[in-house]
Structures are given as C-alpha cells and as structure tokens.
Amino acid sequence: MSPVPTPPQDEVLTTISRLSLFEGLDEYVLKQVAQSAEFKTLEKDEWVIHKGERGAHLYFLLMGRLQVIDATEEGREIGISFLKPGDYFGELSVIDGLPRNASVVATSKSKLIALRRAVALELFHHQPLVIERVLKKLANTVRHSAFLRVILAMPSVNQRVCAMLHHLIVIAPGGLPVINNLPTQQQLAIMINTSRETVSRSMKSLIDQGIIERDYQRLIVRRPEDLQRASALGKYDENAQ
C-alpha cells in the first residue's frame, strides 16, 4: 500500500462529504476529518489488512474493489464479502483495539482514504449520526456472517454455488434479475470453500440448463426460482463434487 500526495483541501473536503458515513455532518466536522485524511493506492492482489495485526486506521474505499478474507483452521481461505467504492472497513479494531479479525486484499487497482484510530474514535464518541451508522453496519455484518455459516454448512457444493449466486442477485431496471460485477470463479471458490474447477463445472451446468446466462461482466438469472430451489436441494448437477 503506497501513500500518494494529498489533493487540494477543497477537493479532499468534497470527497469526504460524499462518503455515506459522513453524509449530513457539519462542515466544521468534515474539515477536521479532511485535514486528517491520508490517501493510499493499491495494486491488484496487494493486501490492505492482514488478520491478526493491530488496527491503527479506519479505511474508506474510493476506487476499485476489495475482498474481505478469513481462513479455516486448515488454512484454506474463505471470502467473506466484497467492498465497493464508498464502503468503509476496519471499524472493529478501531472500536476495541484488538487485532484485525480478517484480511482485506485488492481484487483490482484501488484507492483508499485512511483515518487514524484516534480521529475515528473521536467521531464515534461525539457524532451520534456516525455511530448510529456504524452500529447498523455491524448488525448487517453479523447477519451476513450468519448467512455464510449456513452456506458453508450445506453438504453439497452445488447447493453452496446456487445459494451464493442467489444471494448476489439484484433487480435491474425493467425487473430483470442479474448479478453485476460477478466475482471470478476463484473468488467464488474462496467464498464457498471449494475449488475453482468445481465452481466452473457448477456454473457450466447452470448455463447449460438455461438457469443463468452470461452477459459480458454480469449474469442474467433467467430462472431465479430454480436457482433458489437448487440451493435447497443441490440436485441440478449430481456430478459436481
């Protein structure tokens, strides 16, 4: 992770004010945050956070894409979630001062803002709107972790693939179910604790049956009800292991 020169202060202030965590805060508070902001860049596959290290910063993603990763007791990586521009991360260690509980890696060239822990804590202690948003995010994180535990407990890899794909569905204009910014097969494999080859076979079976359809960088889910049914039964491809 490389530092970059800080942009002009008015540009920094504009960037800070557009971050969802700070939306609606007084300009005086935003200026204090802007003065403390440190800009960083990351290349693809470069690590932002390593599990177990001390958390000295709260991070905000401005550009690119990151993946949050944990590991099983056997050492196999498990993808927890993806981060998109505007997201922030690292708040747990900022709050309790304990080591990071997961790692974060760039899946594309990315740009970040880092705020020192002392600055972030000052906001948490004195800005009710900020801490309310942090608490809501923590609640969503708990719910997502519970969802991942359910997926990883599924006995069939087929079920895990279908369940994860169904979870990633969004409704495009016109009511079309799609999966935008589709993770790579390797990223999906990490998310559901299997191999890339298994994900490839499972995806091919879903495409051959017309349940999903590739459309450039996204998937069109032609039969979402069948995808959901397969996630419950795991029967669409008995040969995938």
Task: Kindly state the number of beta strands.
Answer: 13
Q: Mean pLDDT, nearest integer?
A: 89
Low-confidence stretches are: 234-241
Structural class: alpha+beta
Largest sheet: 5 strands, antiparallel
The 3D shape can be described as: elongated
Approximately how much beta-strand content do the residues carry? Answer: 15-25%
Q: Which sequence of strands runs across the widest sheet?
A: 1-2-9-4-7
Kindly list the characteristics that best describe this protein.
13 strands, five-stranded antiparallel beta sheet
Descriptive notes:
With 241 residues, this protein is of the alpha+beta class. The chain is built from nine helices and 13 strands. The chain has helices spanning 9-17, 27-36, 91-96, 117-126, 128-152, 157-167, 185-192, 196-208, 224-233, and strands at 2-3, 38-42, 47-49, 57-63, 66-71, 77-83, 88-89, 103-106, 110-116, 170-172, 176-179, 212-215, 218-221. The strands form three sheets. The chain has a five-stranded antiparallel β-sheet with strand order 1-2-9-4-7. A four-stranded antiparallel β-sheet has the order 3-8-5-6. Helix 6 packs antiparallel against helix 9 and helix 7 packs across helix 8 (196-208). The longest helix is centred in the middle third of the chain and has 25 residues, at 128-152. The two termini are 38 Å apart.
Short description:
Helices cover 42% and strands 24% of the residues.
